[in-house]
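seq:
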Amino acid sequence: MSGSIMIQGTMSNVGKSVLAGGLCRVLKQDGYRVAPFKSQNMALNSFITRDGLEMGRAQVMQAEAAGIEPEAVMNPILLKPTNDTGSQVIVNGTPVGVMAAAEYYRRKKEYIPCILDAYKTLADRFDVVVIEGAGSPAEINLKKDDIVNMGLAELVDAPVLLAGDIDRGGVFAQIAGTVMLLEEKERKRIKGTIINKFRGDVSILKPGLTMLEDLTKIPVLGVVPYFYLDIDDEDSLSERFKNKKQTGIVDVAVIRLPRISNFTDFAPLEAVDGIDVRYVDAPAELGQPDAVILPGSKNTIQDLLWLRQSGLEAVILQHAARGGVVFGICGGYQMLGEEIRDPEGAERKGTVKGLGLLPVRTVFEQEKRRTRVHGNFLKLGGALAGMSGAAYEGYEIHMGRTEAVISDTDGQGAGLLTLTEDTGRPGDVKNAGNAGDLQKPGFDGVWHGNVYGCYVHGIFDHPQAAQGFLAALLERKGYSADTVKARDWKAYKEEQYDRLADIVRASLDMDAVYRIIEKGNDAPCSL
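struct:
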């Protein structure tokens, strides 16, 4: 069998990414070589491939579900919003500039050749390509130059499954209205519909399914239940941000910046029983956590100013003054320093004072650093001394260059990590205890007192790093270091993908799905 199948949705956040990931896993389990594809993705959650290219995190999740290495051709166009009206445009894994929305929409048809080349690369190497749409195909103001929904389906001649979200209400109107707003040739591409995120007894829903089929003349291929799995989310619509409760042994507060990026960095901590990971965006919500984490940001300076204006800077400084642990990653690391300078206007030209908790300064440059890395924590002091020597792996993706202001003179700070690029360039680990060595290749990050920062995304993915972090916080509270155990994150994700496949198999008419893949647009599209 060979072919493609496309998951489109009635709106954003109906579950297209996860459904596509589930199909990838089912096909893999059934012995097919399968790859994901999304022509255009808008998200701040991105990833760096082994060849140093950038792609959307959702397609990384789908590639993992398919059991293959993520490649930038799976997501040839990535848009990373920098403000409410503009985005950094990344083509085939490489940034090509920042564009206002109107400019991008004028130019996006220019990217069709690279989209088709990327798709063909996958179609030539895999049995099946599972394609994900974006938003809704019924956005009639955008249909003229569509390159991600029905426009793409026509370009690659893909059959479509249309998913709606019943949990948000009005699913029958979602699906029927979407079908009504499509042109006849587009309606013929829809081979089936899916009701997603259902809570309750399916038998009560069945009369509605029959009426929906009568209205649309398109079969309903299944009802997928609302489920809870640790699957990487695509964007900031993530439900994880709703968690505000403090019920566990260890309380970790992540600052929810307006332009937060790569929040999947904290998924390995969230997956540990007994650990609370809360996302905080107001001073009153912070409380007295065991650790505060400043995450990555797509616009570090703007989010730093927001931190200051919102009052969160003051309560973070108070937390640090009490000896509380603060950990910054990428943009959060930059914010913790003395100052951020942007001489060329990469974000906002000028100089902004940082929180002053780490003896470093950052200078923005136009060129983005993109690389996969691994290494070990150096000999640390302070509350996280127990992390010394722990292994980590992850990736760097940033436009700033951070240097130590002074070398360590009081024994209260030094470099944080040894660093080796996955391209094979090793780091020089001699004199690793001196913060001045941050300016040499082979090191990343710094610690001072109980404040720590580095550029590495995914730093808690390695079980040694996650366990070391949690054990240090536990011991500080008087608990044994093995009171809770970090998971083997890679093995845990494999379990989650298998559970996702079980749900998809049980919920969808997989015989019909296979017929659609095999026959493509020759498959019947109506009842």
